[in-house]
Amino acid sequence: MRVLLAGGAGYIGTHTAVSLLDAGHDVVLLDDLSGTHAVAAERVETITGRAAPLVVGDAADDAVVTTAFDEHGPFDAIIHFAAFKAVGESTQKPLEYYANNLDSTFALLRVGLERGIRSFVFSSSATVYSDPADLPFTEESSTSVDLSNPYGKTKRMNEVILADIARVHPELNVTVLRYFNPVGAHPSGLIGEDPAGTPNNLMPYVSRVAIGTLDRVGIFGSDYDTPDGTGLRDYIHVVDLAEGHVAALEKAEPGYVVYNLGTGLPVSVLELVAAFERAIGRDLPKQMMNRRPGDVAASYCDPAKARRDLGWVTKRGIDDACRDYWHWQQSNPSGYAGA
Ligand code: WQD
């Protein structure tokens, strides 16, 4: 298959590009480099020994998407990773988030449908699940568009829009992948997560404490109704997540389908920090803090549908993820900018 990866130079995009190339598919990356660097695409080529051409531009611009098709098409499929993803920032910049995260879908669909793509895969999020009584979340668990932040709302809005598009294009496969918490990095240490500024997410924050650019890990809430009082999440190694995209694309049949991509194993904040401490062989400074507004006590999935329909299972655990993240962090202390 020949696949256009919008947002393909980002964290999940680069790992998926590697997995697709390793599986014998061809990829082209489209990225405006607002959240990453061109070197990330070069690293994909270094790892795989295959070409990963990068088109620099905005996936929300029809002319840019058209150029990608003209210069590198035709494509069998588009995977749409291109989005703003900072939850807190989205509450301050709702217009930017709604515009970017929806316009990109519209532009990719307009051009992609005109050019005859057979499959459209969308990066959604576990954040669309709304009712803790449904844990572990299955694809049938209740979802809401009335989420606590615009980022999450754009994910659910995109899903609703894509279901309507699939209805009027019965020949098209639309696959929605609901990611739980992606962590880790490629074991080569060449690609990984490269957040700008102070990280919002747990593993990148812990890693910055480990490398010494941040003082201590703040534990956001120790009074949740969970075994150790800290939040429970379903941390999935980014290479397992990438392989989930390959499995979904190879299976793609006409129609709209949703899969959870997670491990099914709830892990607490304290357990994740302890795993990172094992990986680096020393303790890290930690401090109990108040709950972070908008956080839920627990979020983890039932991954049975992806296992059954795609034959996909996660193969890596949090110890692998911490080791691989730390290898990436140590090899690239200031991320791609230092390359
Ligand atoms: C995990 C746990 C925190 C940082 C978010 C988005 C989601 C998705 C992934 C991405 C929670 C705790 C965190 C810290 C802490 N979006 N924590 N100290 O909130 O589950 O998911 O990122 O693009 O849509 O909502 O992930 O990594 O921020 O937090 O104690 O410094 O770690 O309270 O329990 P989250 P996270």
From TrEMBL:
Its EC number is 5.1.3.2. One of its GO terms (cellular component) is cytosol. One of its GO terms (biological process) is galactose metabolic process. GO terms for molecular function: UDP-glucose 4-epimerase activity. It is an enzyme of class 5 (isomerase). Keywords: Carbohydrate metabolism, Galactose metabolism, Isomerase, NAD. It holds the Pfam family Epimerase. Residues 3-262 form the NAD-dependent epimerase/dehydratase domain. It comes from the Bacteria. Gene3D superfamilies: NAD(P)-binding Rossmann-like Domain, UDP-galactose 4-epimerase, domain 1. Pathway: Carbohydrate metabolism; galactose metabolism. It catalyses: UDP-alpha-D-glucose = UDP-alpha-D-galactose. Homodimer. PANTHER family: UDP-GLUCOSE 4-EPIMERASE. Belongs to the NAD(P)-dependent epimerase/dehydratase family. This is UDP-glucose 4-epimerase. It comes from Microbacterium limosum.
